[in-house]
From TrEMBL, chain A:
It holds the Pfam family ACPS. Residues 2-87 form the 4'-phosphopantetheinyl transferase domain. This is 4'-phosphopantetheinyl transferase superfamily protein. The lineage of its organism: Bacteria, Pseudomonadati, Bacteroidota, Flavobacteriia, Flavobacteriales. It comes from Spongiivirga citrea. It comes from the Bacteria. Keywords: Transferase. One of its GO terms (molecular function) is holo-[acyl-carrier-protein] synthase activity.
Automatic annotation (TrEMBL), chain B:
The lineage of its organism: Bacteria, Pseudomonadati, Bacteroidota, Flavobacteriia, Flavobacteriales. Residues 4-81 form the Carrier domain. It comes from the Bacteria. InterPro entries: ACP-like_sf, PP-bd_ACP. This is Acyl carrier protein. Transmembrane segments: none annotated.
Length: 198, 84
């Protein structure tokens, strides 16, 4: 199972959530907070860890169909001496996920996959959005992922569409029937990202 | 406090974080914060913090765990107010 998440650092600064001390208390376990505060750029680290947790959470919901609002249930396996990790092992209850992290100066993109029996081919792309309006961002991101799938599967775009189930998980429909391919979509601030597993 | 009052207060708290304004205009107990109102999940933590401030209650992470809908949030608030 897969899940992804993007955090736009500038947008996160504007949102202000990470500047609330109680936000940090509700979101990060003690050792995670220690790593964040020890970093030269604590705000950026908080954004990175949040996005890792969120990506793993999405994979977990896809796997278990169980939703919750409690980031401290999501545990990051942090390694001493690694300032900016490129991947992290994450556990939620008895489930484990490997999360790949791609960071630049503007944003972080995290892509999670289940540790058990994941044999699909996973693609991840990040795009810069033309607008900060939610509805436009949503359409733009869906169009981008359908363009990609259309090219990858060599299938005309009009045969493809994206629907969501009752948990909010996106699914691919091809010629009207639901496919097994996994799609995860995310956008925040100026950035969107999609992950697709074939 | 009546259920209507609680709902009104919760609506005021939630409004700044709502991305789907249309769904907000028809908010009910059944409304889901993420799937209907498109509130981003970091902002859901902000909602929990704002609820703590507004009602002067403490929401532990185990209580926050289920605050994904209007209905379950109202239940948590009611329970915490009753414990005061």
């Amino acid at each position: 199972m897969i899940g992804n998440d993007v955090v736009d650092f500038q947008q996160a600064q504007l949102d202000g959530s990470y500047n609330r001390p109680r936000f940090m208390d509700k979101t990060f376990n003690l050792h995670e907070k220690e790593y964040i505060l020890a970093n030269e750029y604590p705000h950026k680290m908080a954004c990175i860890y949040w996005s890792v947790k969120e990506a793993a959470y999405k994979a977990y919901v896809r796997e278990t169909r169980n939703r919750f609002l409690n980031p401290k249930r999501i545990h990051l396996q942090l390694k001493d001496g690694v300032k900016e990790p490129i991947d992290l092992l994450v556990s939620i209850d008895s489930f484990s996920y490997m999360v790949e992290i791609e960071v630049n100066e503007c944003r972080v993109v995290s892509v999670a996959k289940s540790m058990n029996q994941f044999s699909k081919k996973l693609f991840s792309h990040t795009i810069q959005l033309p607008s900060n309006q939610y509805s436009i961002q949503n359409v733009y991101t869906k169009t981008a992922v359908l363009d990609f799938i259309s090219k990858h599967l060599n299938k005309p775009k009009h045969c493809l569409s994206i629907g969501k189930n009752e948990l909010g998980i996106p699914f691919l429909f091809m010629d009207g029937s639901k496919k097994e391919h996994q799609i995860s979509l995310t956008h925040h601030g100026e950035y969107a990202a999609y992950a697709v597993a074939f | 406090m009546s259920d209507t009052n609680l709902l009104e207060k919760l609506k005021t708290i939630v409004e700044p974080y709502v991305q789907n304004k249309e769904a907000f205009s028809t908010i009910s107990e059944e409304t889901d914060f993420i799937n209907d109102l498109k509130i981003n999940s970091a902002n859901l933590i902000d909602v929990a913090l704002d609820v703590e401030d507004e009602f002067d209650i403490m929401i532990e992470n185990d209580d926050m765990d289920k605050m994904l809908t209007v209905k379950s949030s109202l239940e948590v608030i009611e329970q915490k107010l009753a414990e005061k």
